[in-house]
Amino acid sequence: MPLELVDLRRGGASRYSWVPPFDFETAYENERWWDDVPYLFDDPWYVQVLEDGAEVARVELDDPGGINPEYANVPELGPERLEIQFIEVATAARGSGVGTQVVRALQERHPDRRLFAYSEEAHGFWASLGWEGFDHPEGQLLHRPLFIPRRL
Ligand SMILES: CC(C)(COP(=O)(O)OP(=O)(O)OC[C@H]1O[C@@H](n2cnc3c(N)ncnc32)[C@H](O)[C@@H]1OP(=O)(O)O)[C@@H](O)C(=O)NCCC(=O)NCCS
């Protein structure tokens, strides 16, 4: 079953009360990533991922997102970059390829953008996508590794 990506944007709603209208009945391990009021951000951008109409994953994008210049040997990422700030698959849907499908679907939906992500303890996941990892000189314990899709 193909996944459906639904953008959740604040639009004209109040920045002091709007929360992305995810399906809050669906259980996630990191609920705290998703239920904040993102009032600090001018244009917050979330993606709800549906399979058969049911929510199976959530994504937060940061457009274009910031690159930490201290990381070694990172290729130049210009304004085409687009950061996957957070991605999470619903607890019940984990480990069955949904995360992989979500990232592939984002890449297909944004062919002119170069996605990147700082791994939040999911280094093996990003590596499994074939993305290249880059470390901060102070190491992975202090700084999350940066992952970028390899150029074809
Ligand atoms: C990371 C996450 C999004 C992956 O989604 P998923 O649907 O479970 O992953 P997939 O089934 O597509 O797995 C693809 C591969 O990544 C590996 N993988 C999945 N989660 C992983 C993790 N947390 N750490 C290391 N490897 C992981 C799988 O073992 C699989 O490897 P294989 O191809 O050798 O079998 C999901 O586990 C999740 O939501 N984790 C909690 C939140 C999180 O850590 N998000 C990442 C923030 S940067």
TrEMBL record:
N-acetyltransferase domain residues: 1-151
Protein name in UniProt: GNAT family N-acetyltransferase
Taxonomic path: Bacteria, Bacillati, Actinomycetota, Actinomycetes, Mycobacteriales
